């Protein structure tokens, strides 16, 4: 056995370990010198290795690195004591000098015997890795790293981090290194650590380490930035779809002055686009342009479709041109996005140009691109180009889909090209596609709108036979067509089918009825109304009133009365306008039988104006009050805020009727009350002593005659009683009433001169005219009859007659309607 004997400075546990290691089986014969030298070298290596390992853990924790190194060397860093190799008997076989320790940073080498050998990087890295893997983290790790027998460098740290698989242990080592005075910021260290954290999906750890990297960068005056690490972090976070964190790191990297590479920009833009935030992607793209970063093919492929889809077509097309100038080959997606977006934006020429250019690059149009182009041209009304693309699509081997058939049919139908639409419609059926209700409805409505009854009915029957339910608009279009063509029976059949389908048909039936009413087809309207009643379909009071008025205009009083009764019984409002319109028909009627019918219709209205009419024609004994009081009471009951126009209309028609019936006194009472209630506020104007005027342009014939007589009577009283004589008096008649009023005044030799629209006379002449007896009779009693006019002429020719006696005679009876 061979034993090792050393100086007392070497602990016995180390010696025992070394002895156990160097024990060999040998004969008692002497050992040759070469073998002894080899054993000496082995013992030195073992001694280096086990000197550190043999120190107890508690002792090492309380000792400084210099004391720790003194276990193998003296304070003067000289040689250790002699190492002697003994045999079993204890005799010395060989002796030699041991290892000398080295101060870190002074001599990065060791002395092996008498040889000076450098410390290998691999040995240093292995030692660091050994310590890190043994202690992992915490104070113990830092203590053992502090007691390393050599001075580590950043190269050792980088290689150690690459070997250590435990990310937490690597982070502990790196944080210890950052505390050392020899630490220099290293991009590769951060890259290795970020890579390990990314493999472990520890994105919180990545964020924390990134913050440390930013702080580390800000503390140093040289502003050394880990460019690769910054970009690597952003790319990792972007690929992991950590949107907020990635964008935050991107902003911090920009604030630190770090240059972001193209791949990082691409990853960020892809992240925002995938998250549906294109405006943020464009913001990143704009910052990329400001930094003069070189766009690569991926950037173009990414940003051009996004710009096109977001409507920024000019920017997208500019990048497309720039991409071609840089000799980059656009992909199919770039062409497809530009073709689609330009077409939808109405820039059809540019869209077609890009489409043709795409084929020049060798790309084959897809079915989606054909659909987009055809849709754009069809919506723009360029149906010829759409059909050419349609044929090109089929020749390219693509089968038009259901939606494309529908779009082609509807676009041609809506543009009035019904023949092409029907041709494509038949091709659609042959291709095995069942047209949708919207397609049927479009064709039906367009044929109905063009007045093609046969085609519309054929499409309707085809639609119902296919089991499809026509829409409400289809039924309305078809019923409107049949109503305009006066096919009442067919329209009734369609309406009943519509009702059977579950639709509410009241409104549609009323619309058909209104078509007949507006078309003045009263017989068809009455027939359709009877059909509605027999089918249990109701209409509204407004349409009933419209049909009633149509019957009145056409003299169908027998049919009008039941309609009015229906209107009254259904709580329909018979207002003053409707009553006045019936009275106007009575004024114009010249048939006694129809007069009786009209009087019956007036009584059917049950309006208060009819009771007023009946009371107006009775005597004062039955009314028990004078006619003027009776008229005033009626007009006091009118709501002038709501019925002022109706009341004015009633006065005009009523005065026509009263004058026609010869009831001049009653007519003057009605006019007097109407003027008192300011129904005609601007009719009479007193302009001091200059001009007095009467405006009758807005009155009926009867109302104008009564107004002239009554107003001249007022002028006469004012002039005679108060002695006021104006310069002139005007009667503004307008071209229509001028002749009637001029004839009436000429019968009593009035001084009024007739001009285009005005009758005027000097005030003095009118004053002299007012003094004549016949004028007095004319103004006080009635419009003179032919007998009165003849008597006046006799008085003029024979002034010896006694007019004062004749003026005492009782007044003439009221003139009849025939004399009027």
TrEMBL record:
Domain of life: Eukaryota
Residues in Smr domain copies: 694-770
Pfam families: PPR (PF01535), PPR_long (PF17177), TPR_24 (PF23276)
Keyword line: Repeat
The protein's name in its UniProt record: Smr domain-containing protein
Organism: Brassica campestris (Field mustard)
PPR-type repeats, residues: 261-295, 296-330, 331-365, 366-400, 401-435, 436-470
Protein family membership: Belongs to the PPR family. P subfamily.
Record-linked InterPro entries: PPR_rpt, PROP1-like_PPR_dom, Smr_dom, TPR-like_helical_dom_sf, TPR_mt
Species lineage: Eukaryota, Viridiplantae, Streptophyta, Embryophyta, Tracheophyta
């Amino acid at each position: 056995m061979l034993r090792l004997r050393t100086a007392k400075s070497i602990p016995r546990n180390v010696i025992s370990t070394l002895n156990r290691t160097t024990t060999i089986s040998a004969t008692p014969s002497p050992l040759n010198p070469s073998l002894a030298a080899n054993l000496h070298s082995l013992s030195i290596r073992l001694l280096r290795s086990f000197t550190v390992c043999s120190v107890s853990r508690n002792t090492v924790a309380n000792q400084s690195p210099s004391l720790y190194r003194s276990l193998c060397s003296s304070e003067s860093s000289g040689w250790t004591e002699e190492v002697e190799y003994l045999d079993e008997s204890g005799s010395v076989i060989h002796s030699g000098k041991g290892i000398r320790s080295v101060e870190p940073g002074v001599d990065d080498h060791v002395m092996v015997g008498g040889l000076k050998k450098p410390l290998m990087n691999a040995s240093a890295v292995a030692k660091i890795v050994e310590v890190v893997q043994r202690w992992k983290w915490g104070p113990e790790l830092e203590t053992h790293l502090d007691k390393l027998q050599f001075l580590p460098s950043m190269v050792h740290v980088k290689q150690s981090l690459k070997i250590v698989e435990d990310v937490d242990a690597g982070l502990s080592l790196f944080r210890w290194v950052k505390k050392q005075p020899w630490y220099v910021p290293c991009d590769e260290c951060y890259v290795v650590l970020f890579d390990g954290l990314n493999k472990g999906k520890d994105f919180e750890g990545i964020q924390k380490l990134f913050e440390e990297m930013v702080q580390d960068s800000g503390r140093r005056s040289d502003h050394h930035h880990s460019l690769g690490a910054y970009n690597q972090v952003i790319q990792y976070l972007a690929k992991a779809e950590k949107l907020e964190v990635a964008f935050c790191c991107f902003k911090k990297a920009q604030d630190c002055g770090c240059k972001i590479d193209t791949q990082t920009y691409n990853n960020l833009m892809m992240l925002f686009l995938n998250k549906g935030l294109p405006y943020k992607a464009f913001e990143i793209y704009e910052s990329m342009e400001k930094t003069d970063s070189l766009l690569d093919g991926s950037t173009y492929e990414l940003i051009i479709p996004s710009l096109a889809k977001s409507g920024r077509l000019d920017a997208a097309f500019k990048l497309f041109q720039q991409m071609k100038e840089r000799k980059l080959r656009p992909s199919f997606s770039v062409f497809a996005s530009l073709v689609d977006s330009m077409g939808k934006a109405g820039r059809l020429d540019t869209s077609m140009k890009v489409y043709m250019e795409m084929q020049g690059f060798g790309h084959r149009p897809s079915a989606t691109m054909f659909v987009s182009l055809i849709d754009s041209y069809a919506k723009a009304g360029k149906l010829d180009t759409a059909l050419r693309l349609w044929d090109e699509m089929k020749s390219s081997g693509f089968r038009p889909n259901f939606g494309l058939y529908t779009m082609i049919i509807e676009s041609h139908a809506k543009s009035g090209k019904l023949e092409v639409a029907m041709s494509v419609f038949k091709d659609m059926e042959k291709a095995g596609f069942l047209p949708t209700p919207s397609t049927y409805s479009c064709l039906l409505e367009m044929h109905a709108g063009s007045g093609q009854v046969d085609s519309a009915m054929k499409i309707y029957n085809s639609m119902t036979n296919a089991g499809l339910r026509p829409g409400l608009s289809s039924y309305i279009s078809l019923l409107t067509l049949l109503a305009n063509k006066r096919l009442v029976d067919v329209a009734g059949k369609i309406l009943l089918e519509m009702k059977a389908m579950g639709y509410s048909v009241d409104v549609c039936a009323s619309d058909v009825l209104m078509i007949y009413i507006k078309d003045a087809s009263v017989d068809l309207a009455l027939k359709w109304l009877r059909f509605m009643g027999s089918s249990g379909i109701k209409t509204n009071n407004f349409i009933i009133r419209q049909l009633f008025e149509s019957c009145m205009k056409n003299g169908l009083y027998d049919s009008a009365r039941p309609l009015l009764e229906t209107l009254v019984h259904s709580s329909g409002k018979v207002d003053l306008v409707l009553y006045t319109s019936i009275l106007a028909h009575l004024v114009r009627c010249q048939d006694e039988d129809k007069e009786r019918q009209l009087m019956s219709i007036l009584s059917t209205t049950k309006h208060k104006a009819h009771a007023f009419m009946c009371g107006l024609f009775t005597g004062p004994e039955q009314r028990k009050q004078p006619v003027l009081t009776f008229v005033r009471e009626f007009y006091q009951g009118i709501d002038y805020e709501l019925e002022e126009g109706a009341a004015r209309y009633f006065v005009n028609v009523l005065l026509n009727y009263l004058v026609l019936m010869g009831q001049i006194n009653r007519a003057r009472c009605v006019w007097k009350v109407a003027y008192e209630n300011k129904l005609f506020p601007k009719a009479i104007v007193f302009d001091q002593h200059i001009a007095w005027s009467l405006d009758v342009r807005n009155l009926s014939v009867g109302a104008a005659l009564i107004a002239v007589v009554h107003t001249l009577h007022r002028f006469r009283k004012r002039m005679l009683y108060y002695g006021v004589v104006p310069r002139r008096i005007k009667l503004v008649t307008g071209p229509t009433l001028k002749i009637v009023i001029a004839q009436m005044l000429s019968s009593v030799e009035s001084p009024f001169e007739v001009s285009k629209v005005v009758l005027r006379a000097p005030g003095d002449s009118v004053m002299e005219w007012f003094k004549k007896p016949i004028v007095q009779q004319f103004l006080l009693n009635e419009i003179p009859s032919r007998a009165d006019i003849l008597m006046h002429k006799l008085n003029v020719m024979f002034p010896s007659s006694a007019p004062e006696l004749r003026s005492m005679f009782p007044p003439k009876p009221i003139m009849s309607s025939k004399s009027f």
